Automatic annotation (TrEMBL):
Protein name as it appears in the record: DNA-binding response regulator
Gene Ontology terms describing biological process: regulation of DNA-templated transcription
GO molecular function: phosphorelay response regulator activity; transcription cis-regulatory region binding
Keyword Transcription regulation included in the entry's annotation: yes
Record's GO cellular component terms: cytosol; protein-DNA complex
DNA-binding region: 69-167
Predominant localisation class: cytoplasm
One Pfam family linked to the record: Trans_reg_C
Biological source species: Mycobacterium scrofulaceum
Domain Response regulatory: 1-58
Length: 168
């Protein structure tokens, strides 16, 4: 746990980290947090608490991601969050409200893989509706629109995990 967090932070990786550990002493928790973890949860734990902590991490991450820049750039894609505009190679991409919301969340967490459950919560406000394919459908809509006119593949599926916005 601590060694992984230390290695991530040594590489200037600012991905949110929640340590899940059976080690429950105050010294262990302090060591994990001082190594760079954003949160530390001791096993056994209730799933609802883990979900709440992950949501809090993502909220904090989203709040800081846009504070440094109003426009997020991923390769030829520019996402203007306050202006609710997306451009690929300087050309506006016509997106619905929900498509833009999904793109904005992915852009705010660029290079981080977000699960379907995370996207459902952050974009639609649903909690773990496992029987819906709405995320997959909207990912398809976004891909088609972003790749129209020869745009590169920016929206990637990480099998068994989720989706990420990044250049190859």
């Amino acid at each position: 746990g601590v060694s992984v967090v230390t290695a991530l932070r040594a590489m200037d990786n600012d991905v949110p980290v929640c340590v899940l550990s059976a080690r429950s002493s105050v010294d262990d928790r302090v060591a994990g947090l001082e190594a760079g973890a954003d949160d530390y949860l001791v096993k056994p734990f209730v799933l609802a608490e883990l979900v709440a902590r992950v949501k809090a991490l993502l909220r904090r991450r989203g709040a800081t991601a846009t504070s440094s820049s109003e426009t997020i750039t991923v390769g030829p894609l520019e996402v203007d969050i306050p202006g609710r505009r997306a451009r690929v190679n300087g050309v506006d991409v016509d997106l619905t409200k929900r498509e833009f919301d999904l793109l904005a969340v992915l852009a705010e967490h660029k290079t981080a893989v977000l699960s379907r459950a995370q996207l459902l919560e952050l974009v639609w406000g649903y909690d773990f509706a496992a029987d819906t394919n709405v995320v997959d459908v909207f990912i398809g809509y976004l891909r088609r629109k972003l790749e129209a006119n020869g745009g590169p593949r920016l929206l990637h599926t990480v099998r068994g995990v989720g989706f990420v916005l990044r250049m190859q």
